[in-house]
Amino acid sequence: MKQEKSVADRLREFREYSVAARSGRLSGSYDPVADEIGRWDLHTKSQRLLGCVERVLHAMTIQGLYAIRTPKLQVEAVSRRVSCTWAYFPMHKVRSVVRNYGIRLRPSTRVLLILGDDGSERSAENELRKLIAHHLGHVLCYLEKPSWIHACPDADRAAKRCGLKKFIDAFHYEPFPEASITAKLERRRVSE
Ligand SMILES: [Zn+2]
Predict the structure, then answer these.
(1) How far is the CA of 131 from the centre of ligand 1 (A)?
(2) Quick one: which of 69, 71, 118, 139 has the most CB atoms within 10 Å?
(3) Is pTM beyond 0.90 here?
(4) Distance 179 CA to ligand 1 centre (A)
(5) Residue 24 zone, left/alpha/beta (φ > 0; ψ -120 to 50; rest)
(6) Which DSSP letter does residue 68 get?
(7) Element counts in the chain: helices (H) and strands (E)
(8) Residue 6 maps to a domain
(9) What residue numbers bound the domain in which 179 lies?
């Protein structure tokens, strides 16, 4: 039986893919999600976290993916609870959280997206996907207009415009177990 790749191996492959993409050494078709994850240079042992990131980014429109592709965005995975997943901006907020998590902030960073999973919570996958989608909405709002004091519904709208509707809707209206949400998403996908 084929051994499944470790999270560390997959992250390394994403990084290598991204380096190859940026230097024009890619053969075959271009995968913007692999490139994006590679650019984020994530460090985590959580298979679940990586799976959720992939699932959300794959649902995102190409415009959305390009909007978040900026050195202004720094993404860091931390070994904490799923609910730590959060977008931090403007800069003074970013700086205080950097102290908490011991993150090395890049000089170009204006918005910091923290992705949390320490593996302690069972069946938190759905919640994690929803949190990632919602906070990417905050990132999109901030990047679009840094001076705009926007709220959570604005973030939801921005995320929906970028293809993340199914995760956002689940966030507010479907607090049901994973199985039923997955079934609903499948039905929606079929009907699209
Ligand atoms: Zn919010």
Answers:
(1) 9
(2) 139
(3) no
(4) 25
(5) left
(6) T
(7) 9, 3
(8) no
(9) 39-191
